[in-house]
Write the C-alpha cells for this entry.
Amino acid sequence: MAVQDLFRMEQTILITGGAGFIGSNFVLQWMNCERTPVVNLDKLTYAGNPRNLKPLSGNASYIFQQGDICDRELVRRLLERHRPRAIVHFAAESHVDRSIRGPDDFISTNVTGTFSLLEETRAYLSALPAENRSRFRFLHVSTDEVYGSLGLEDPAFCETTPYAPNSPYSASKAAADHLVRAYHHTYGLPTLTTNCSNNYGPFQFPEKLIPLMILNACQAKPLPVYGDGQNVRDWLFVEDHCEAVRTVLAKGKVGETYNIGGYSEKKNLEIVETVCSALDELRPNDPVVPHNNLITFVKDRPGHDRRYAIDARKIHRDLGWKPRETFETGIRKTIQWYLANDEWLQSVTTGAYHQWVATHYS
Ligand code: NAD
Ligand code: TYD
C-alpha cells in the first residue's frame, strides 16, 4: 500500500447520520476546520438530506455511503476498507413526537444500531496494531433527555444525575448510552459520550419547534404550542454543539461523559414569541402581522417533560469549551438562514412532510 494511502487511513473518521441536522453541520465544520477525510454512513431516512452536503461534491476527502447502521456486514466492510481512527455516532431517530406515535424505528436504530456499531468496532479494534488501537475513539452523541424532567427549582443535569428517561425516544437513547458505557467497562472500548441540550440552527427539519414556527409563521399558518407553553428547554446553536463534539474527540478522557449546553433556558412560549417578533421586523408585509396572532395552544404532548437544564461546567473546566453564540445571536442567524434558503425548505417539505403535519396536528 502506498504511503499516502496509509496516511489517509490514519486520519479518516467515520461519521454516522452525517446527512441529518447536526451531522451535516458537523461534517461541513469538520471539512472546514480539520480537513481530514470523512466517511459518512447515513440511511437517508426522511430526516437525512444529502443536499446539505452539496458544497463537498467533488471533494476527494469526503465519501458518502448510504446504508443502515444495523447492517453489520456493511459496517464491517466500511471499517476494513477505510480503517478510521474514530467513529462519531450521530445516527438516530430523533423526534420525540414520532417516537410516541411509533417507537419501533427508535428501538431498531438507536438501540440495535448502536449495538451493531459497538460490536463491529470491538472486532475491528482487536485486529488493529496496538498503537492505532490506543489512538482510536468511539464518540457517542446523546441527549440531555435521558435524565428525565426537572422541577423549576431543581439543579441542572450534571454527568452524575441518575437516568430517568420518559419518552420512547429518550429511553432508546438511554439504552444506547448504557451499552456504550458497558462496552468501555467490560471490553475497554475507548468510548466518549456527550449529552447535549436542544439544538437549533441551519438544516433542522421543520418538524422540530423552531423551524416549524418559522415556516408556519411565514405561511400565516397556526403556531401550535403544546399545553400551556411553559415547558423549559436549554437551547444551543448547532455550530457550538459541533465544536464541542470536536473538542471532546480531541481532548476528552476515554470512558467519560460530557454534558453540553447553551446556558440558555427558555420557556417554549418565549421561544415562539422571539421568533414572531424577529419576523415582524424582517417580514413586515406578511399576511398576519404581528406574527404572534398565529399562536394557537394545542393539546399537550403525552408525558411531556417539564424542564431540561444542563450543567456544562465539566466540559468547560476540563476541556475549555463553552458556546460562542448567545440565544439572541444564534436565533437571529437561524431565522435569517431559513429566510434565505427557501429552496431547501421546499425540498424537505414534500408530501410525506405534509402527511406528518396533517396527522399530528389534526
Ligand atoms: P436528525 O433526525 O436530523 O438526523 C438523523 C440522521 O440519522 C439522518 O440523516 C438519518 O437519515 C440518519 N439515520 C437514521 N437512522 C439511521 C440508520 N438506521 N442508519 C444510518 N443512518 C440513520 O437528528 P439530529 O437532530 O441531527 O440528531 C443527531 C444526534 O444528536 C442524535 O443521536 C440525537 O439523539 C442527538 N441529539 C440531538 C439533539 C437535537 O436537538 N436535535 C440534541 C441532543 C442530542
Ligand atoms: P422539539 O423541538 O420536538 O424537541 P424536544 O421534544 O426534543 O425537546 O420540542 C421542543 C419543545 O417544544 C417541547 O417542549 C415540545 C414543544 N413543541 C410545541 O409546543 N409545539 C410543537 O409543534 C413542537 C414540535 C414542539
User: Anything to note?
Assistant: The chain has a mean pLDDT of 97. The pocket of nicotinamide-adenine-dinucleotide (ligand 1) is lined by residues 16-17, 19-23, 41-45, 47-48, 68-70, 90-94, 109, 113, 141, 143, 173, 196, 198-199, 205 (CB under 6 Å). The chain is about 45% helix and 15% strand.
